[in-house]
Design goal:
Distance between the termini: 84 Å
Number of domains: 3
Bound molecules: adenosine-5'-diphosphate, magnesium ion
Radius of gyration: 31 Å
Number of helices: 18
Strand content: 15-25%
Length: 621
Amino acid sequence: MPIRTLPALLVNQIAAGEVIERPASVVKELVENSLDAGATRVDVAVEQGGNQLIRVSDNGHGIPGDELPLAVTPHATSKLATVQQLAGIATLGFRGEALASIAAVSRLRLVSRATIDGRTAEEGRVLEASGDQISAAAPAASAAGTVVEVRDLFFNTPARRKYRRSAATEFGHISDVMGRIAIAWPRASITLSHNGRTALELVADDSPRRRFLNLIGADLDDAMIEFEQIQGDVRVWGLAAVPSMSRSTGKFQYVTVNRRPVRDRNLAHAVREAFRGLMPPDRHPLCLLMLELAGEGVDVNVHPTKAEVRFAEPGRIHAMVLNTIRKRLLGADLTPTAALRPTSTGAGDLADMDRPSTADAAPAARDAGWRGSGAATGTYADPPRQTDRGPRGFDYDQMRRVMAEQPEGVAEPGPTEPALHSHVVASSGVLQIHKCYLVTQDEQGILIVDQHALHERVMFEQLRDRLRRSDLESQRLLMPSPLKTDAKRLAALESLRPLLKRIGIDAEPSGPAILAIHAFPSFLFERNVDPAQFVEELLDKAEDGQFDTDGEHAEEAALHSILDMMACKAAVKAGDDLKPQELCELLSQRDRIERSSACPHGRPTTIRLTLQDLEKQFGRR
Ligand code: ADP
Ligand code: MG
């Protein structure tokens, strides 16, 4: 085929391919235009997941009648005139491509009644555009503002049409897009309906916090930790849910940069880092992060749908986000509360304290999961709670069986003969139960502590602290401890050597198949950890790729894992009897160390039953 210039329609359809991927992309572009036009109210109605109809109405400044044809012309925009203005662009749009692209692949109808210098035009104008056809603008009855209707999306692009998903799936995407925009623009009233049913109804709100909670669930209010920091011309503000409200996917992180919802791996990483050690590695924080920075600090022209941005100083922003969130988390009381809820047996239910994984379990179309505010959000109502985790209510049958086994006369034990003697040690307000849990109180209620988990955290923080002060003593072994080895283990040893040196382990090959351990941290030695066993486990894990030391933050992560292992080995186990003063010592550490609410793996060390809940359960209130 000879080279030839493509017809304009084809050019537009190709361009549309980049920007308009699915109905949700149309919704995004149209709503962004409304917000750019200063709208304080945006109503979105879609039919059949937007495949059939998308209508976006706003009360913005509108488009003057004589400019209507330009609005649907490619590379025509009112938002940008020079390349200088591109740096620090304050509007969401600037390419002048969206309406033209949409018109190229659908039947578009544009009605607008403009307001210029406070004066609203006498009447509106309407224009229709589809493929490469544009009608003349004609007078039309309309309120001040703009209404864009998009019908039969992809009717003339069979390839795209083929990839259309079900109305439910497409609507799921639309709902997600709308939620993310709504979070970034709390001052706009926003509604969304699907096939005539309201899915989202958000009133204008001055408070980004309230808007966010309206969307993700007002019951999370108490779980949200607010953070803020201003440094030069950068402002970081946001809400982080306590670790016990973590999610099983990273989807529940909402990031906006200068009021633009974006995805950003660098920022996502900073958030995760801030939560490191406070939640299990397979969990993800629920978080809202809003960044504001001067225009030169960020380039928004790096992605066709502007879903990504590029920071001039990514390292500085990363550090700022990480430090701001981490500082607030370390200062907060993150002890999860066990929710006591009435069950059919009347027994309390402790199972509900952690992991609201119910939202995660929802099908794809419901992923957005916005709860709206008082709207008819049928499909978005709280899904039924899962009932397959954690301990259930008190087992009365078990208790009856135990009672039946008691010989006569012992069923009501005297004070010197507690029935559960072997399992309970009471000591100055601390009980050790089943050699596993410590029970005590604080001003808010009853605390239940996992002795191993808490001790592990205590050991971990001590280790970290000593490492930081270069005070991690190492002990030379009189008799080097031998360990069988092979080529793989030797390779693992080589890769770990710098880290081993930092923690005071000196291991050298001695002969072809033997490793000799010459020095070992006193800390572990004192707690009866066997050097050969420890190093063997360490090398096995290294061989297994668990301490990958490549990558930007990998060395710290690997060190964290090794300290973690040391802490775990050194900590008391479930089943260890603790002397009264050991119990007290351990509990007193709880208030002194950082991140005491979670063990280094991120599991909780402590659960609180609040007095309020107990009062409710016992019918005192
Ligand atoms: P861009 O947003 O990049 O400028 P678009 O194709 O999305 O490009 O829109 C083209 C132009 O049409 C905009 O620059 C704006 O002037 C006008 N426009 C589009 N939608 C609206 C609206 N809802 N209200 C007012 N003006 C609008
Ligand atoms: Mg636009």
